[in-house]
Amino acid sequence: MGPLSREVWAQRLGAFRASPSAFMAGPEAEDLGRDLLGDLRSEKLSEQTKVSLLALSLEYPAQLWPDASAAEVAATSLLDTLVLLPPRPSALRRPLLLAATTALAGGGALGPTSGASCRLLPLLLGLAVGSDLGRGFVPASEQRPLQATACECLRELESCKPGLLGGSLGLLRGLLGQEGPVQPLSLLLSLALRNTLVLQSRAGAGLGALLTARVSPTGGGPWDWTLVEEGDGHLQPQAPSWPVAEEGEGECSLTAREHNPEEARELRAAVAQLLDTSYLLTPVAQAQLLWLLGWALRGLQGQPPALFKPQLVRLLGTAQLTLMHAVLALKAAFGEALFTAQDETLLLRRLTLAAQHPALPLSTHLFYLHCLLSFPENCPLGPVGEEAAPLLLGPQLCRGLLPSLLHEPMALLARLHLLCLLCAEDEEEEEKGQLPSPGHYLEELLASLWQRAALEGGPRALATLCFQASYLVARCLAGQPTVLTPLIHGLAQLYRARPMLAPHFVDLLDHVGPELREPLKVVLRQEVVSRPGRDEALCWHLQMLARVADGDAQSATLNFLQAAAAHCTSWDLQQGLLQVCRALLRAGVGGGLVDLLQVLARQLEDPDGRDHARLYYILLAHLAGPKLGVALGPSLAAPALASSLVAENQGFVAALMVQEAPALIRLSVGSHEVKGPLPVLQLLPEALEPIYSLELRFRVEGQLYAPLGAVHVPCLCPGRPARPLLLPLQPRRPAPTRLDVHALYTTSTGLTCHVHLPPLFVNFADLFLPFPQPPEGAGLGFFEELWDSCLPEGAESRVWCPLGPQGLEGLVSRHLEPFVVVAQPPTSYYVAIHLPPDSKLLLRLEAAQADGVPVALRTDDWAVLPLVGDYLRGLAAAI
């Protein structure tokens, strides 16, 4: 098969991007990669189309080349295509390099045994150093872009196989002082230097002459894979993140060895050379470079971090967030060895003032606050990992960072977090002067949040913010009773004002520690049981009581439930009441609960509620405390020591639930039968096991069809033929569609199950209906009248219909017999088809030839013309 056209490729790429998984599961998946590689060499496709194909291979390499062998073949073909390009400038060279690199890296084919790897690596290195590869391979106008692309490709391969470029460090270092792309080369050299230092240190070896050797990339010798094979290929990610600096201590300690004077001098020179040119890089690239070099030199004896000092002078006042992040990463890595106390004070003041700038966007504001909350101090007093405010960051300096109700919610929470850390340090002291203490300000802020959340009809966002702030305070100040006591009373007052916030209280109790959870449960329980049982917020009180009820205050809780039982008339209130009874059962409450369950078993209106109350009463009467707690626990698996009533209870619950099950039914579409005024789809069901009370529900995609009714079958048994099921269709437009099928049935064990069946497809021919038969002898006039009525509002067309070996007569008798109005076999047939809801399709099949017949057609609905053409062209293949 020849190359595909641009339109076909556009259609295939659109279908692939719409759903890659669905496309790869279809019939065209196997040919996609092969066609893509083959058509890249076709002269019939434009370069723009080929670039689109290469872009697909860059975005979805795992789908196109799923294993190492496929990736190897793809990379080899891409390199061959690259070599065959004419010497003139082309937009394909850079995408081809990127695609070959991506195929090897993504497919796991990169290695010493890969032929494509052995071809690609010298090629990339030669392009990166600007060597003459001969035959006009690199036009002068493309040399610099290709050099940058080659550096990016090598950096990607070095990331996948650390140590891959260890033998080329000297060659890459020598390029920094020459003309060429500075940023790609600097990032490549810094990554290769970092990886080589780590791997050589693990092996107990030094750098040797790696930084001074000038290895020719096209010398013809094999590529050196020694460092790659000695390393395990698992180095720390390249994303700058200063908290990771502490976690990576074990890996960094591998570099804690002393190099000989010559190695140390060359290493300092290489690092200084990279740092001196770093100002030419973009902010993001500068941050990446600083992090890589700082991570590589951390703990390396004989390499003082003072090499970074000139960069700090330039970067301490930067407004670029990425560079500020890199500075903090260096501070976390080197601490007081690089940053003096004055530097630390200046940096803290810089972050504090920047976080108060009124014109900052929210994301930038949150960044500076996060830097303050995670500030890496030179000499932290607390243990490693303990959350604390920086020592030099006092309330006076943070006066402009105090939270206010006017701030955005995220900014308020970040400022509140900082305030809580200040309160943890200022536990006993108060600021002298006019400023209130942090603890006093915190109490006022929480009181304002509670007051806003308690407003009747207030937005849910205010309540959510209030509980987020309460959780933050409880987490940071869990050990301070002076803060927790007013917090508990404030939350109790909030519940008293708005019981509808009970779900928020339940969520808070699930996440806070025991220091707040236990006293808050007591206070909330007292708030609930002190209310009358007929309160209009009874549903919220029951939800709250189900969470806070325990063995304490049994009499007050039971009195509240007995008073509330008379007002629980709806199903949801009865279920809430039973949930409280369940919680009391798990807490070991007996006594009065027995009487309450007996009353509920008799008086509840809902039969489900009465059954549950009766079950709880039986469990309470027959099981001891430990077994009762296990029986009512969240697990459905009954332990060995439990009573047989537990298993019966589980069976009872399972029988009441509709369970998802594997498909025990096969459903297919039978032959099309023309019956009645509507098209009918004939369904053929088949059961793999006996099923009963089967209900098939159908959902039509889109709005082309009216909703379909369910089909019911009393019983289906395997091996026993079932009568066909008829599903009437009600199309609003004559078009094919897809039906999603959902089955609900009962098994022989009494369980009710549901399952999603494979979709069914309604074809265009399934909608065909005949016109009423005209009187004998009037068929031609009837057809001509219909033919003339289609114009001028309708449409007319001609289609070539291929004929198989059966000829025209066999084709008509097989597919169009019910719709023939006038027949002159075997050469001429007039066909009239009614398309619901109110369209018509007329066909003239005349002058048949050996391989096909011309078909003249008219319709009063022009939108069906493409469907008719596809249908007629596919008739011969459908035999």
TrEMBL record:
Domain AP-5 complex subunit beta-1 beta-barrel: 691-760
Single GO biological process annotation from the record: protein transport
Keyword annotations from UniProtKB, A to Z: Protein transport, Transport
Domain AP-5 complex subunit beta-1 N-terminal positions: 35-104
Domain called AP5B1 C-terminal: residue spans: 782-874
A cellular component annotation (GO) from this entry: lysosomal membrane
Domain AP5B1 middle: 263-628
InterPro entries from the UniProt entry: AP5B1, AP5B1_barrel, AP5B1_C, AP5B1_middle, AP5B1_N
Keyword Transport attributed: yes
Protein known as: AP-5 complex subunit beta-1
Source organism phylogeny: Eukaryota, Metazoa, Chordata, Craniata, Vertebrata
Encoding gene (name): AP5B1
